[in-house]
Amino acid sequence: MMAHRLMPPPTRQSDRVRTLRLQVRGFLTDQRDAGAFVPRVDSWGDGWDESFSRALADQGWVGMTIPTEYDGGGRSFGDRFAVTEELLAAGAPVSAHWVADRQIAPSLLKFGTDHQKQTFLPEIAAGRQYWAIGMSEPGSGSDLASVRTKATRAEGGWRLSGTKVWTSGAHRAHYMFVLARSAPLDPARRHDGLSQFIVALDSPGLTVSPILNIAGTHHFNEVLLDEVFVPDEMVLGDLGAGWHQVTSELGYERSGPERFLSSLVLLRAALNEVGDGTLEPDPRLGAAFARIHGLHHMSASVAQTLESGADADTPAAIVKLLGTRLEGDIVDVVDELTGPELRGPSTYSQLLRSGVLARPGFTIRGGTTEILRGVVTRGMGLR
């Protein structure tokens, strides 16, 4: 239970939310004891388990903010935030439904047609449909205004050609949002002429190739689109409004608890070793917990802003910047403190190894540190 004592209580936590947290903890304890999952670092990025996602959906904990008319939970962002924190604190394998639940569903609700909502939202809420995001490109990275994937008018729709990279889960997902240039680039107005498209990942002309990480594991992909046809009814939002839509979507991607809790399960394991006397105490471990506490409140505040429908681009970028730095710091400190006697075939050693291997990706996904510093600087009026 130490993992849950590490979680700071949310601001003004109601009895209802407290009860919800206890329900999630009980479920996770039962699942872990039954061998349904083994806690892991970066469980939202590299913990793909479709049966676990469906089990969560059966409890009503996927699609929580989707309205009931689309078979969702009709619950608040605060409720979803509480469940998300509990799942991450336990290191539960949630990556199968993560992108769909975190940002696809809110974007469909905000920009999608009724046909798109009726088609996709019930399947997302059931934990049966998985999505990827096609934003970054070779040579573009986090500079989304420079994307070169082209959308060309065709009878009844559009044909998309280009390449997307770092596309998490594309080899397993069903659909993908693709940002493409639907009008010629105007150097003076680089953000104009971009549109978003809903692309089925089994479409003719679409090829998914793995990008292996340094451990040889696979969740990143390169996606090649070669004249992939997308019907008009699968244009998301307004043509030419892709930049506005993507930046709105990035508020969900950058600000959630996954931006500072990816390595919490490792911090908990290290504190357990300190308690057992096998790891020397270090003030940096306590400082990490204090930073988690602060980021919890920052992230919860952004969730409230997003629920109100307001933009949260700059606060979300700040959470992502500070959070991913913290996640990496936790791995670095624990790795430094761990001697050879703790690096054998143990659960602790496996957590540390997975943390070290996952660490390089923390500051890349969701926007590189360099790009996000620019977002924050502009958002604060300093540039």
Automatic annotation (TrEMBL):
Residues 18-127 form the Acyl-CoA dehydrogenase/oxidase N-terminal domain. Residues 132-219 form the Acyl-CoA oxidase/dehydrogenase middle domain. SUPFAM superfamilies: Acyl-CoA dehydrogenase NM domain-like. Pfam families: Acyl-CoA_dh_M, Acyl-CoA_dh_N. Keywords: Oxidoreductase. InterPro entries: Acyl-CoA_DH_CS, Acyl-CoA_Oxase/DH_mid-dom, Acyl-CoA_Oxase/DH_mid-dom_sf, AcylCoA_DH/ox_N, AcylCoA_DH/ox_N_sf, AcylCoA_DH/oxidase_NM_dom_sf, Mycobact_Acyl-CoA_DH. It comes from the Bacteria. PANTHER family: ACYL-COA DEHYDROGENASE, ACYL-COA DEHYDROGENASE FADE34. This is Acyl-CoA dehydrogenase family protein. It comes from Rhodococcus olei.
